[in-house]
Amino acid sequence: MEIKGPFSYSGNKYKIMKAHLANTIKLANKIHEPFLGSGVCMYNSNSGGIGIDADTNVVALHNSLKSEGLTDRVQQCLYEYFPEGRNEEAYLKLRKDFNEDWKKNGTNDNNAHMLHLLIQLGFNSLLRFSKNGYNVPFGRKEADIERIRLHQKIVEKLELNFIHGSYSDLLLDNVDKENDIIYLDPPYLASKFTYGGWNEPDEKALLEWIDSLNKDGYKFILSNTLSHRGVKNQRLIDWCEKYNTKPIDKKYNAWAAAVGSVSYENNTSEVIVSNFEF
Ligand SMILES: C[S@@+](CC[C@H](N)C(=O)[O-])C[C@H]1O[C@@H](n2cnc3c(N)ncnc32)[C@H](O)[C@@H]1O
Fold first, then answer.
1. How far, in Å, CA of 278 to CA of 271, rounded?
2. Integer Cα distance of 93 and 18 in angstroms
3. I want to staple 187 with a disulfide (CB 3.0 to 4.6 A). Which of 25, 49, 198, 258 is the partner?
4. Distance (Å, whole) CA 232 – CA 108
5. CA-CA-CA-CA torsion sign (98, 102, 105, 106)
């Protein structure tokens, strides 16, 4: 059974991984994710990998799984704040207490249990911060302590390293060209949602970096969108031609939609690009 990742994350690739990547991941040794998010592919790997993210909160949440007793602290926090079950008032108190600490110390091993619980109980399980801290309103879901327990077990078993930084900080000496895969899931240029303002120069630099990975013999898989609500990413469309490009939207031919002149206003043409057959 495929693993979902330790916390919900908007833009996570669980469904894509399950439908298109699971078999390939099973055949590889390590999966490295230089755009980590919830790290769905790494947690499903045979022996781990290196995950990098520009967001310190994301990295701290993953690293907190290595801290003994995290699951107990989340459970304890649940009892302490919600003795009579989940309710908005208690949620807002937990959020306030977490943010007071976050403003001084950021997310770290001492307060990550609170953030895990907030994400689980928050609206749509979002991970979203403003300058005053975590700012997601109360949601509808129940806490899921088992999800954290399961990922703590995976972290014990696999060799997972989580690093705060830029994707290009990936130390390639630690990547096995034969048996590992570098899975890249950057913010989409064509998307209206940007993670920290991903822009044209970022995109150009990333595609050049991937070309250099390819030239040096590393295996990569890239998830991206060729167009989003009719906005095409022409640079990506041209760049893809030299690699294997698989449209993953079954509703229509995403590739044709992106390269053709037809405008699919409400659709996003998602693709998987790789430098090896799978
Ligand atoms: C689409 S999300 C990845 C989602 C992930 N594949 C999952 O399944 O949850 C992109 C991630 O890249 C991170 N990011 C943005 N710019 C980055 C950069 N220059 N280097 C590394 N990570 C970056 C964002 O913080 C975000 O977590």
1. 14
2. 37
3. 198
4. 39
5. positive
Residue tagged 């592919």 (tokens): 41
Distance CA 202, CA 235 (A): 12
Q: Is the CB of 57 under 6 A from ligand 1?
A: no
pLDDT of 192 higher than 70: no
Q: Is the dihedral of CA 101, 106, 110, 111 positive or negative?
A: positive
Backbone angles phi, psi at 155, to 5 degrees: -60, -35
Atom 8 of ligand 1, nearest CA residue: 12
Q: Which DSSP helix (H) or strand (E) runs through 163?
A: strand 159-164
* Beta pairing class for 129-130 and 268-274: unpaired
The token pair that represents 179 in the structure block: 């048996």
Which of residues 17 and 189 earns the better pLDDT score? 17
Strand 159-164 to 220-228 pairing: unpaired
29, 2 Cβ separation under 8 angstroms: no
Q: What is the pLDDT of residue 1?
A: 74
Task: Give, for ligand 1, the residue of 36, 127, 209, 223 to mutate: max count of ligand atoms closer than 8 Å to Cβ.
Answer: 36
**pLDDT tens string 218-233:** 999 999 988 877 778 9
Q: From the CA of 39, how far away is ligand 1's center (Å)?
A: 9
Q: What is the token pair recorded at 67?
A: 């801290």
CA distances from 66 to 3, 43, 45, 106, 161 (A): 17, 13, 17, 18, 10
Task: Kindly indicate the confidence band of residue 261, based on its pLDDT and cuts at 50, 70 and 90.
Answer: very low
Q: Is the CB of 58 under 6 A from ligand 1?
A: yes
Domains detected in the chain: 14-54+165-274 (3.40.50.150), 66-147 (1.10.1020.10)
Q: What is the mean pLDDT of residues 126-142?
A: 96
